[in-house]
Amino acid sequence: MRKDLHEIREGLKSIRQELQDHFSDVDALSPEDLYAKKMWRFVGEAKDRVDDLVDEVNLADTTFTEVVRYYGEDEKNMSSAEFYGIFKTFVTSYRVRRDDHRALINSDCAHRNVRWIIRRWKRNERHWRRGGNNRKP
Questions:
Q1: pLDDT in tens, 20-60
Q2: How far apart, in whole angstroms, are the C-alpha atoms of residue 26 and residue 34?
């Protein structure tokens, strides 16, 4: 990413130099010649956007370094692709185990409910065999 950003900055620098070499005095140009005015405006807007992009890339790098350190890895010897690959494997494995655990809990709850229903049914059956009066079972 840094390489691409460097190429963009160099390209913008080259455009700015060409404009300075050939269109440094925009007011001296013909009023119908809008190319130089549009290009100078473009370079100004593009520079602002590239500067913002540089800030975002620096923030991403800093954040990545902090995250890698937080997880106990060496940021100098680990690429972002390697780190995120390991992290994705961890998150996927965690979700599978979490879902397995939830299924086990739900299964256990269902078994307890069935056992409770069976005990209740047997108690009611004994009650009705004894005569089924109006007492609570």
A1: 998 888 777 777 878 888 889 999 999 999 999 999 999 99
A2: 9
